[in-house]
Design a protein that fits this description.
Layout (H helix, E strand, L loop, with lengths): L1 H15 L4 E5 L2 H11 L3 E5 L14 H7 L4 E4 L3 H13 L4 E4 L63 H18 L4 H26 L6 E4 L5 H6 L3 E4 L9 H13 L4 E4 L6 H10 L2 E4 L7 H16 L5 H4 L1
Parallel strand pairs: 1-2, 1-3, 3-4, 5-6, 5-7, 7-8
Helix pairs in contact: 2-5, 2-6, 5-6, 6-10, 8-9
Length: 323
């Protein structure tokens, strides 16, 4: 009996002392997903730091050095991956790369409905388009806002704004972690099941809350909420084109469009200017809401998005009904 107890304690001690898998992700929401599935079995680092933009981010020398020791990189298709993935692979050829967008039908990015300003042209001119590599090793689509036009459509990488898609992404993370660490496979499976249940609950909550919303359109400076909109029967109307604020003519057209479509709320990200959004909101009697698709509190963030849309999209009572 003592021998069996000694063996058990030895095994438990060895498991507890095992080094966690070193995982890199591109943006903060992915850190949440990997940690929820991996638990204490993973150590996660994020490339794009809080407040930075995935459009223009350059990894620090410290991050590049840490990548040389990583076991897994979870890509999602933001634009800095296109510029850096070759160097990331070269820094650590043994590191596995999981393309989170693999197997997902990627949507096209919206372009503003207004005509381009004189001299602006189409924002996609000269911009590279990134395709999936063989065997799921590609880096995915180019990041939104890095070349959106009517003739050459860029695929939207903001998959994580849809809870059902996050559930699919989390399953890929579970499988990748299990492949690297089969001994903890049952733990990863159990963690995934718990996380998937929370995602299902969030999905049901958002659907129920948005069901009675009459106005299904909202404006965004940068069109990062397309998968959320598609999942819940909404439409996002973008303001910017290729990261550029609209000029006077385009701004006037946006204001007319917002009035015509009774838009009451405009989302802006903290990484972008609020000037154009504030001008539109002031002209239509609406409001600007700072909504960050890169927020680390994934579940709470999407719940807040739903709350704002419910408040903005529910018809205001008439004077007669308030009496």
């Amino acid at each position: 009996m003592r021998y069996l107890l000694s063996v058990l304690l030895t095994l438990l001690g060895g498991s507890a002392g095992a080094d966690p898998l070193r995982v890199f992700v591109s943006v903060l929401p992915q850190k949440t997903f990997v940690e929820r599935v991996g638990g204490p079995g993973v150590e996660v680092q994020v490339m794009v730091q809080p407040g930075a933009s995935p459009h223009t981010y350059d990894p620090t020398p410290r991050q590049v050095a840490a990548l040389a020791r990583a076991d897994l990189y979870v890509a999602v298709g933001v634009s800095f991956e296109d510029a850096w993935m070759g160097r990331i692979r070269a820094a650590n050829p043994r590191m596995q790369i999981l393309d989170s967008s693999q197997g997902i039908d990627l949507r096209a990015m919206e372009a503003p409905d207004h005509d381009a300003e004189p001299g602006h042209g189409h924002a996609d001119e000269g911009q590279p388009k990134v395709a999936h590599g063989p065997g799921g090793q590609g880096t995915g689509p180019a990041e939104a806002g890095e070349g959106v036009g009517h003739d050459h459509q860029v695929r939207d990488p903001h998959l994580w704004t849809s809870p059902p898609l996050v559930k699919q992404m989390a399953a890929g993370i579970r499988d990748a972690l299990t492949q690297l660490d089969p001994g903890n496979g049952p733990t990863y499976a159990a963690n995934y099941a718990a996380f998937a249940a929370e995602l299902d609950s969030l999905d049901r909550e958002i659907r129920a809350r948005l069901a009675g919303v009459a106005n299904r359109r909202f404006m965004v400076f940068h069109p990062a909420w397309g998968y959320f909109a598609d999942t819940y029967g909404l439409t996002q109307v973008p303001i910017e084109r290729g990261g550029k604020e609209p000029g006077p003519r385009a701004l006037a057209a946006l204001i007319d469009q917002a009035r015509r479509e009774q838009v009451r709320v405009i989302f802006v990200q903290p990484q972008f200017s609020r000037k154009a959004a504030a001008q539109v909101a002031s002209a239509i009697g609406g409001r600007v809401e700072v909504m960050d698709p890169l927020a680390p509190d994934y579940l709470g963030n999407l719940s807040r998005v739903a709350s704002v849309l419910v408040e903005a999209g529910t018809p205001r009572p008439s004077v007669e009904s308030r009496r």
